[in-house]
């Protein structure tokens, strides 16, 4: 089984990345242009309403389901820290629950799973499957 990172280890990694970004000459890796990632255009976030997370392994290879479990646990901790009920800490990650290609309906709080043509394949409210 893959090794999991503790919160402190994750903070150390993120802090290290931030330091390298602020002072790129402090690291040989940051100087190596072949290892850098470039974008081909700027994006103004002012009118962006939705952001998706693409796990197509373009830049990194994710360890599933460990990665999804880490994300789930971090989101639960964050929700509790901003005022959600502490009871949600009892929720456990379910790797069989739909996790890719989802749309979130803000108005009703539903998760929609759609195919590449926009046809709704399934719909959930929380963990309850909706049929109509």
Automatic annotation (TrEMBL):
Statement: the UniProt record of this protein carries the keyword Aminoacyl-tRNA synthetase: no
InterPro entries membership: HAD-like_sf, HAD-SF_hydro_IG_5-nucl, HAD_sf
Superkingdom of origin: Eukaryota
Keywords: Hydrolase, Magnesium, Metal-binding
A Pfam entry, by short name: 5_nucleotid
GO molecular-function term, one example from the UniProt record: 5'-nucleotidase activity
Record carries keyword Electron transport: no
PANTHER family with a match to the protein in the record: 5'-NUCLEOTIDASE DOMAIN-CONTAINING, CYTOSOLIC PURINE 5'-NUCLEOTIDASE
Assigned protein family: Belongs to the 5'(3')-deoxyribonucleotidase family.
Record's protein name: Cytosolic purine 5'-nucleotidase
Species the sequence originates in: Geodia barretti
């Amino acid at each position: 089984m893959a090794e999991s990172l503790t919160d402190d280890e994750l903070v150390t990694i993120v802090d290290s990345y931030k330091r390298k970004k602020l002072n790129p000459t402090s690291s040989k890796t940051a100087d190596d242009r072949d290892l850098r990632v470039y974008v081909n255009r700027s994006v103004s976030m002012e009118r962006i309403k939705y952001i998706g997370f693409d796990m197509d392994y373009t830049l990194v290879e994710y360890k599933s389901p460990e990665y999804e479990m880490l994300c789930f646990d971090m989101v639960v901790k964050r929700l509790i820290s901003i005022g959600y009920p502490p009871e949600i800490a009892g929720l456990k990650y379910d790797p069989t629950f739909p996790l890719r290609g989802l749309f979130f309906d803000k108005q009703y709080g539903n998760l929609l799973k759609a195919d590449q043509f926009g046809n709704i394949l399934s719909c959930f409210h929380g963990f309850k499957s909706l049929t109509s």
